[in-house]
């Protein structure tokens, strides 16, 4: 069979410590959380982010960045005995490199509706999105997100859209 790209993906799943704990995980081994608060559905002192949860969002690093802000605020509120007032909207981002110097930055919410950060149409191949993916995203990931300084683009989205609707 002829091909021009081979994408091999190793077997994936939740850690065995979670998968085997039926008290906190569903039948497939994912932590059961409320999709808006990311709080466990049975134990209020447990929160989850990322690939190990059963929330119906796309599992991307961008989703984890957005979830971190919600979980941090909700853990703090829980420790102080306050209500959970923030909601995760399902934000995820998939930079789709479509060719040399071309990328579509797909950003969307739980309902798969566009939730675009930039005030331009992102539904087509753009060189600027390729540069964003190639040059800025690795910096955001390694230097900000992993150190707890990047909680996704929500604040920039609001500024770039002049606080309107998005």
TrEMBL record:
GO cellular component, one term: mitochondrion
GO biological process terms on file: sulfide oxidation, using sulfide:quinone oxidoreductase
UniProt-listed InterPro entries: FAD/NAD-bd_sf, Sulphide_quinone_reductase
UniProt name for this protein: FAD/NAD(P)-binding domain-containing protein
PANTHER family tied to this protein: SULFIDE:QUINONE OXIDOREDUCTASE, SULFIDE:QUINONE OXIDOREDUCTASE, MITOCHONDRIAL
Molecular function GO terms recorded: FAD binding; sulfide:quinone oxidoreductase activity
Native source organism of the sequence: Oryctes borbonicus
Domain of life: Eukaryota
